[in-house]
Amino acid sequence: FTLLGLESSADDTCAAVVTSEGHILSNVVVKQNEELAEHGGIHPYVAIQKHQQNMPGAIRRALDEAGLDVSSVDGIAYTRGPGIGGCLSVCSTAAKVLGATLNKPIIGVHHMQAHALTPLIPTLYQTQTTFASAAEVELPPIPPRFPFLSLLISGGHTLLLLTHSHDQFKTLATTPDISIGCAFDHVAKYLGLAPTERGYGAALEAFCASGTARFTDATPEIAVPMPRQLAFSYGGPRSRVEIFVRERGGVQRVPLSTRLKLARAFQAAAVRQLEEKTALALEHCAKLGVGVRDVVVSGGVASNAYLRKTLRQSLADTFPDDPPNLVYPPPHLCTDNAVMIAWAAMHRFAAGDFDSYDVSTRPKWRIDDYTGKALARLQ
Ligand code: ATP
Ligand code: FE
Fold first, then answer.
1. Residues 121-152 pLDDT 10s
2. Which of 5, 24, 170 minimizes the C-alpha distance to 74?
3. Which residues, including other chains, have CB under 8 Å from residue 55's CB and lie 6 or more apart?
4. Largest CA distance in the chain
5. ipTM of this model?
6. Ligand 1 in contact with 304 (CB < 6 A)?
7. How far apart, in Å, do the first and last CA atoms of the chain sit?
8. What is the pLDDT of residue 355?
9. Do the beta carbons of residue 32 and residue 12 sit within 8 Å?
10. How far apart are CA 16 and CA 26, in angstroms?
11. By C-alpha distance, which of 283, 10, 300 is closest to 158?
12. Which residues line ion ligand 2, judged by CB < 5 Å?
């Protein structure tokens, strides 16, 4: 069967057509880069307006690029939550209207479940030969096996999940303050960087990779002591950069070489925290007798190439005898997309586990509470 996926939980308007075998027939992502740059981040009202403007065209393009008439689509999957309420209502209403009009089933998907299940798309493992060199191959030969660890690092979340099955997740670590993606965005702004077409986080990564100094030069000013506990914290490193710049009278007064050093120190500290917490989580699972062989890293920040390389090396060093299998979905499937939304709905679709056309959105939705339809019916 074939599903149309719709996503509009944050700032990207996405539509995609995916088959139950995992063939990606189309993947349309409409970004809001100008609005991001103008408002220095996501402005909810602007984002809602842009979704309303862009969603119909995104759906049309997704169907055209898939070469399908809408009547050949078997169902519609959309992001039900979590996310910005008004933004979620755009993909949700689009899915419901299409479903009700065409008399096709709809399935409301948990956005973080979709990020977590992306690496299970089987066709990703058949297309590895398209990588330019062996060094670029970032997926192991086979998909991750349950239970696996999911490190979800994005604009709204910093999560370490024990993924037991397609619909059972346990949060091992989260953050009481800002997300890692948010910290990358803020630091890029403090350092006076303009967003690239892939956003502020990608601009910070590109800045760190520019110039001739060493990639990971550390600067003591933003070193933050890290307790040996599972919770993440990115407010500290972010604020240190902010204070450093403010104390010097603004970013214009900080020499380029110092800005570069700060950016690299922040990026290195951010990744070091991921290394430490992932290692702790693996030790924690081993103590509980839960055999975890694979670690999936996904969400927008997982498209960072420095992070991919450093984390792989660090885990190999920490667990030399039995290194975990690291799984990185391709960068364009780490950031928001509707392929993952359609894919995450496949199991429920196969089981005939559909949502009713009057199901509500869930802007706040803990992934530990996710149980598919049973809960959807109750709420
Ligand atoms: P969530 O998935 O938690 O609801 P979201 O959907 O807004 O949040 P994603 O699209 O998954 O988030 O990720 C966006 C975040 O990823 C932004 O904060 C962005 O700056 C960050 N990001 C994207 N590319 C990079 C990169 N190369 N390096 C660091 N951060 C990046
Ligand atoms: Fe996301």
1. 999 887 554 544 444 557 777 889 999 999 99
2. 5
3. 6, 8, 13, 15, 90, 91, 94
4. 62
5. 0.98
6. yes
7. 28
8. 96
9. yes
10. 5
11. 300
12. 154, 336
State if residue 234 touches ligand 1 by the CB under 6 angstroms criterion.
no
Determine whether the shortest distance from the Cβ of 156 to ligand 1 is under 6 A.
yes
What mean pLDDT is predicted for residues 270-286?
A: 93
Q: Whose CA is nearest to atom 24 of ligand 1?
A: 202
Query: What tokens does 185 get?
Result: 């965005």
Rounded to an integer, what distance in angstroms lies between the CA atom of residue 297 and that of residue 119? 9
Mean pLDDT of 67-77: 96
Give the Cβ contact number of residue 212 at 10 Å: 5
Phi/psi of residue 323, nearest 5 degrees: -65, 140
- The identity of residue 294, as a single letter, is D
Please determine, for residue 215, whether its predicted confidence score (pLDDT) is greater than 50.
Answer: no
For residues 340 and 114, is the Cβ–Cβ distance under 8 A? Answer: yes
